[in-house]
Amino acid sequence: MKRIAVIGAGAMGGALVNGLLASGFDAACIALSNPHKEKLEPFSTRGVATFTDNCEAVKGASLVVLAVKPWLIAGVIEKLRGAIDPAAEVAAIVAGVSSADLKAMWADKLPQALSIVMPNTAMALGQSMTFIVDVEGTAPLANEIFARTGSVMTIEECLLPAATALASCGIAYAMRYVRASVEGGVELGFRAADAQRIVVATLRGAAALLDRPGTHAEAEIDKVTTPGGLTIRGLNAMEAAGFTPAVLAALRASR
């Protein structure tokens, strides 16, 4: 296996490493760097090489993943420019930084393969929807690595804000639906834990139905919507309360 260096052990960096380990990736081939040692301890006990010095972490890495806050990335890149193998791929998990700005941060040390990557925290469970934007060259290793943590789609940069709204922010929107449904389940008589179990299983089933080739959400809805039945009453009540406009408004706001 090729060596992977992850800079940052926060929500995204940690989720990536957890997802790689869960996929069977060799812990000895992962280097993880973070300035705070306490965030590294859970990973070092699992065999991951951990560092507080980013330059040490990237030595010999074939792929360097920058998983740091947007306001920190320029400083991180400045210190790493001369330390990364010129043949290595670099992938930046960073929101709100354009490809032009990202390239400028590298000055005359631009990697041969540089990409922006936008996953979500479900990486830890191998269920992320991850988007890759090629900034310089192509990113075959980044595609391979992130495919271990879920689905991967290469897109144009102009679609990245929409992708972020649908998939990264979308995790929170899906959770909000679950929370509302669980509250409804409690009102209808279930204990909260049982209501959540029911809602999660139902969503898992809906996702599995839609994951088949050629399926469409409206067609699946039609299968359980009978004339004068309960489902159509519920759907109409949701729309009367503004369900679809609320979802569209959330996506537009987060884009």
Write a brief structural summary.
It contains eleven helices and eight strands. It has 255 residues and is an alpha/beta fold. Strands 3-2-1-4-5-6-7-8 form an eight-stranded mixed beta sheet.
Verbal overview:
The protein is of the alpha/beta class and 255 residues long. It is 49% helix and 15% strand. The chain has helices spanning 11-22, 37-44, 54-57, 73-80, 99-105, 140-147, 160-187, 192-210, 217-223, 230-240, 243-254; strands at 4-7, 30-33, 49-51, 63-66, 89-92, 113-118, 128-136, 150-154. Strands 3-2-1-4-5-6-7-8 form an eight-stranded mixed β-sheet. Helix 1 (11-22) links the parallel strand 1 (4-7) and strand 2 (30-33). The longest helix is centred in the last third of the chain and has 28 residues, at 160-187.
Mean pLDDT value: 95
Which regions contain 5 or more consecutive residues with pLDDT less than 50? Answer: none
Gap between N and C termini, in Å? 37 Å
Helix and strand sequence: EHEHEHEHEHEEHEHHHHH
Write the SSE topology.
Layout: E1 4-7, H1 11-22, E2 30-33, H2 37-44, E3 49-51, H3 54-57, E4 63-66, H4 73-80, E5 89-92, H5 99-105, E6 113-118, E7 128-136, H6 140-147, E8 150-154, H7 160-187, H8 192-210, H9 217-223, H10 230-240, H11 243-254
Parallel strand pairs: 1-2, 1-4, 2-3, 4-5, 5-6, 7-8
Antiparallel strand pairs: 6-7
List keywords for this structure.
eight-stranded mixed sheet, 8 strands
